[in-house]
Amino acid sequence: MRHLPPLNAIRAFEAAARHLSFNQAALELNVTASAVSHQVKTLEDYFGVKLFNRLPRNVSLTPEGKDYLPAVSGALDQLDSASRRLARRTADAPLNLGCAPTFAVGWLIPHLSDFHDEYPEIDVRLTLTPITRQIDFGASDTDVVIMYGTSGSWPNLVMHQLMAEELVPVCSPRLLQEHPLETPSDLRNVTLLHSIPRMGQWRNWLHIAGVKGVDPKRGLRFQTTPLAVSAAVAGAGVAIANRRFVETDLDAGRLIVAFEIDLPSDSGYFLIYPKESGDDPRVSAFREWLLTRLAEEMPEHGDPILEDTLPPGR
């Protein structure tokens, strides 16, 4: 049998210790400062030790309080994370999906109605998520994310590789009429379009193409790759894009591949979620649908559903 102090007293202590203020803790917990003080006193009486030094204008932790705080904070964080996961797994809970903008616009959104047709009972809530190396599922309602990176970018999380990159320079037919591009060196005569999060792409492509004398940093800069591609469609310049994401524009004649020189990349897009979410029916359904659809569309890459990418050494 566990002998635990009252939970309200624990919450009051942790908030007051984190803020070093009974008033700030009271605001967070939506109670009065005197109620926080009372709960802290209850905890001190429970253990028979003093946890705070009460000063005229603030409070400070005693050595016992400092020693107790990390364990309490860790336990509350675990309880909060577990509670969020349990709440998300109720039958009518939505599937909260975070997705890199380029993948969302280039592939997911055009296919998302297919998932809804197959799983109408799952309410997908999509949020565009900037590329990041820090993904904290416990601090948000997000269930899964689709993110750009490499296989070792997110240790301790389950990762499924979705799509490798095939990066090529693209532009509008109108731009080619006005500024013929016969060799890669002719790029000096047109505007280069950049995606700010991936500013090194033009430098790397020009190097692969053996082009000298073209400033890889000049041109127009955009917050995301979809914006840079939209500018290319409008004739503003030449952008670098994943061929898979601009197939519709290529087929419709809105874009043309300026040069058939691919930029090699060891990065790609991954479906990522905590290991404990792997058996969540909503996550499982989305994972199986996503990997199956991509395998059908990209048989040359093999069946991605057969290999889960986990952190090295795990």
Beta strand % = 15-25%
| Tally of separate helices | 10
Distance between the termini: 35 Å
Secondary-structure content class: alpha/beta
Radius of gyration: 26 Å
The helix content is: 40-55%
Question: Low-confidence segments, ≥5 residues, pLDDT <50?
Answer: 300-314
Descriptive account of the structure:
The protein has about 325 residues and is an alpha/beta fold. It folds into 3 domains: about 5-90, Arc Repressor Mutant, subunit A; about 95-160 and about 265-305, D-Maltodextrin-Binding Protein, domain 2 (3-Layer(aba) Sandwich); about 165-255, 3-Layer(aba) Sandwich (D-Maltodextrin-Binding Protein, domain 2), CATH 3.40.190. The chain is about 40% helix and about 15% strand. It contains 10 helices and 12 strands. The protein has helices at about 5-20, 20-30, 35-45, 65-90, 100-120, 175-180, 200-210, 225-235, 245-250, 280-295, and strands at about 50-55, 60, 95-100, 125-130, 145-150, 160-165, 165-170, 190-195, 220, 240, 255, 270-275. The strands form 3 sheets. A 5-stranded mixed sheet has the order 4-3-5-12-6, covered by helices on one side. A 5-stranded mixed sheet has the order 9-8-10-7-11, with helices on both faces. A hairpin with a 4-residue loop joins strand 1 and strand 2 (about 60). Helix 1 (about 5-20) crosses helix 3, helix 1 packs across helix 4 and helix 2 (about 20-30) crosses helix 3. The longest helix is centred in the N-terminal third of the chain and has 26 residues, at about 65-90. It is elongated, with a radius of gyration of 26 Å. Residues about 300-314 have low confidence and may be disordered.
